[in-house]
Amino acid sequence: MRMYYNSTGVHMMHSNNGAPPHMSSNDYLNLDDTPILMHDDSESMERIPLTSSPSLFQKAKCFLLRTPAPSITPVHDSDFGRSLGIFAGVFAPVALGQFASHLFLRTGFVVGQAGLLETYSQLILAYFILIMTVLSICAISTNGAMEGGGAYYMISRALGPEFGGSIGFLFYVAQVLSCALYVVGFVEGVLENFGVGGSFTGNDHGLPNDTDWWKYLYSTVSLFICLIICLIGGAMFARTSAAILLIVVVCTLSVMISIFAKNYRLQIDIPFNNQYIYPNQSNLNQNNTITGNYTGLSATTFRENLFNNYTVDYSTDRQMNYATVFAILFSSVTGILNGANMSGELRDPSKAIPRGTLSAVCFTFCTYFILTTLIAGSCSRFLLINDYVFLQQVNLWKPFVVIGIFASTLSASLGNLIGGSRILQALGNDQLFWSLLKPATITTKSGNPLISVFITWFLSQIVLLVGKLNAIAPIVSVFFLLSYASVNLACLALELASAPNFRPTFNYFSWHTCTLGIIGCMIMCFMISPIYTSISLVLMLILAIILHFRTLPTTWASISQALIFHQVRKYLLILDPRKSHIKFWRPQLLLMVSNPRQSCELMDFCNDIKKSGLYVIGHVKVGKLDDYPTDPVMEETPKWLQLINHMKIKAFVELTLSSSVSEGFQQLVRLSGLGGMKVNTVCFGFYDDTMPTDSLLKTKIRKRKLFGSIDSSQQDFESYFKLPRSNGERHLTVNEYIGLIQDAFKLQKSVFLCRNFQLLNKENILKSNEKLFIDVWPVNFFRPDTASYFDNSCLFMLQLACILTMQSGWKKHTQLRVFLCVNSLSENTGIKEKKLSTFLRQLRIQAKIVIVSFEHLLSHLTADGDHYSAAAAPQSEGELDDVKMHEFAQVPQAYLEGVNSLLQANLNQSAVTFMYLPRPPSSGQNTYTAYLEQLSAISSWSHPTVFVHGLHPVTSTAL
Where in the cell (predicted)? Predict the structure, then answer.
């Protein structure tokens, strides 16, 4: 954030990229003389005078415009903790991180083991990965205001809290390991020169190094020095790194000049601490010294060093190969994010990070390329492999190289220590890991994360127990490669999502560069160490799962939502409804809900029966938009979304405002879904005199989420919905209700009506020790003469019941039972049963067939012909078309009571019953009332019942 004041003393602030972090529809810019403080909040915006609390003014992210003043003078950013520029804040930390322990300690070792050609290939491969990652870093860092946390901040804000938190933790571990690595490199340089048998000491004096505990002591002291510098603060680190970089550059130039100046042969003593050359350490003296050759620049030496000659590393006793040598090289050039890690202290991160990082990477690559070429042309392979510090013997003034070793390694360790502490602080501020990292957020008055620095220092102290640079290097390389792959993945996801707000000012990247960076990182990870890579990926996945299951206290944008939107839109365009086939039919449900407080069981039931299809919960709010200041649907939708989240159902919510329920229902049926995903089935509750109960209270006991607590915003959303009606007053008349069903048929939607679902106890069903049944009665009891025939409604019933038995829980505790209704038990009954069994087998529906005779009920139909005159039984199968089996025919009350008794007699161990729903009569209040009364009469029991009417084929016997 940058602040200015004009000649009148009025402050004006803007974000780093010259614009507010984001602006919602409620935000605006004030162009008059009244300053407006705009918070970075997409849901609200406060008007606060600048005379308010200074702390509030300083902490707010805002954007102020005022009538331009004659003169504008910048206020120093140090007042806000952002004082670092490109060179001190980015270039120097990155360059030092790139030089680290490799420049003076391992450049010759890599050339000696891999040969010049493979060293070139390793340098090119390493810097190819680095440059691809840098391009991604530059793109992300120039796409908005950068806060503290560096790479973690970029990844988490791009990929979302789950992956951001897990990758951030991984990157923090990499910083800790790298800090320890460079401290070990520093101590190695000290002991090679000032230890017993070192370059500046004899074999009988110097710093003791006969045990690993001495090395651990020296490492502890070195790390403590870094701790002191970090405790002083980021600005001190920046000033220190700039000075150290100058020293390192001078020392490097001295090495290059010395190779040209000393163009003659030298015998360079191999240090006595090389136990591979000197296996008998107890009998060493100056007379049995072994030497290696420095030849000066020589074509012969150059040719000898062209190709690889992998041998045993004398510090770890491990056989080297291409992957292990690359790991050692790469572990020392992982400082490209050191500048980004200082984002919280940079004056202008979006400008400093791209320029500083790219220039530092190019500078270090050129340095390494020149230095490796000079070393390969002037030093024998024996010398390169067996002496890590041979360069100081070549140098015109030996202490130059010693100073360079100390400066590069110590500064790199310093950069990782302070960078790691900033990442840990950012993790703590984001509260992703509960309150475990809350101490890491404690800072000094100047903003230095004191506790974070101590935690990072302590963990690095533990890693120092490993003690060997070449032993730590592989795991450091793996962790950094995974971190770089994550940065590339974040940038690739942003690019593929094609979000309009992803428009970085840095344009020299594409999805190709991101993909190449990811591929390169992952290939080298598995080449270096499949074990470390696999463990790291598993750890990252576990952390992502933990963060996914807990309630995250953040409103970050998640790239997953942008990618899902992009892919769904693309595939919806491909999903052509004209190419739909019956073999792949699935229910696309629209459940009409008047009051969710009395419909929770039905909403959950429809969620089970949707079979991965579209499930829309619809509600019509009666009214006119002119009566409201804003659209009331927009205000109600979040509460409905909280409801379905609370119930853990997978549904969409569609609300509409209309002058009548009928008109709103038509809107929902026509508009619910998109493209090839449109509603094909409508579900209503049953219209009867049963008083509704508050089913939402049954779900009030919430199970605590795994790894987290329930979001507090869900604890009071139920108070938003009205209580169920307690009197006989209804929202719909009989005419309106039947009109909705007829509208659904006109719109070519199948319909099912659900009755008594307030009595459905799913928990008891899923806990039952005995098998329960899903019953299907594929017969229109108002047209019993058609009992031997199956139409689309019968098949639709079977399909829905079969889907229910396929669902988790229902599948284990329920079985499908189909009732075959016959006029009388005869020889023909067995044939019908066999035909039905064959038909079900062809449909791949496993069901138990139960034969039921309703011969005793038919007498009630013939006793009063006036009621059933239109239901003459067909004489043959060909006459079935004359009798419309899907229509309703009014039947005598005695017949209805007989049917009800028959059904109740077969309800034993039934969980849900599916029955045939005939079409409503064409018109008339009396017939509508009779229709509902007769449906109610045959289903008057305390048991969940579904009346089904299907319009279209839903199942196929074809392969």
Answer: Membrane
Tokens describing residue 912: 């849900």
Cα separation of 174 and 899, whole Å? 74
Token pair listed for 391: 């360069």
Residue-level pLDDT at 603: 92
Q: What is the pLDDT of residues 726-776, one digit of tens each?
A: 776 777 888 899 999 999 999 999 999 999 998 888 888 888 888 899 999
Q: Which of 249, 239, 255, 247 is nearest to 414 (CA)?
A: 239
Buried b vs exposed e over 673-689: b needs ≥16 C-beta within 10 Å? beebbbbbbbbbbbbee
Q: What angle in degrees, to the nearest 10, is found between the helix axes of 234-261 and 398-430?
A: 150
Q: Are strands 589-592 and 615-622 parallel, antiparallel or unpaired?
A: parallel
* Cβ partners under 8 Å of residue 12, min gap 6: 3, 4, 5, 6, 35, 64, 65, 66, 72
pLDDT digits (tens, 9 = 90+) for 255-302: 999 999 998 898 888 877 777 777 776 666 666 778 889 999 999 999
Q: Residue 403 and residue 250: Cα distance in Å, rounded?
A: 10
Query: 721-724 — which CB contacts under 8 Å span 24+ positions?
Result: 721/595, 721/596, 721/597, 721/639, 721/643, 721/696, 722/595, 722/597, 723/597, 723/694, 724/595, 724/597, 724/598, 724/691, 724/692, 724/693, 724/694
Picking from 207, 233, 230, 235, the residue whose alpha carbon sits closest to that of residue 219 is 207
Residue 410 structure tokens:
């110590």
Q: Are residues 250 and 276 in contact, defined by beta-carbon separation less than 8 angstroms?
A: no
CA atoms within 13 A on the CB side of 822: 16
pTM given for the model:
0.69
**Structure-block tokens of residue 816:** 């499908």
Angle (nearest 5°) at CA 288 between 282 and 289: 100
Query: Using one digit for the tens of pLDDT, what is the confidence trace for 850-864?
Result: 998 888 888 887 655
What is the three-class DSSP state of 550? Answer: coil
Residue listed under structure tokens 């491969």: 125
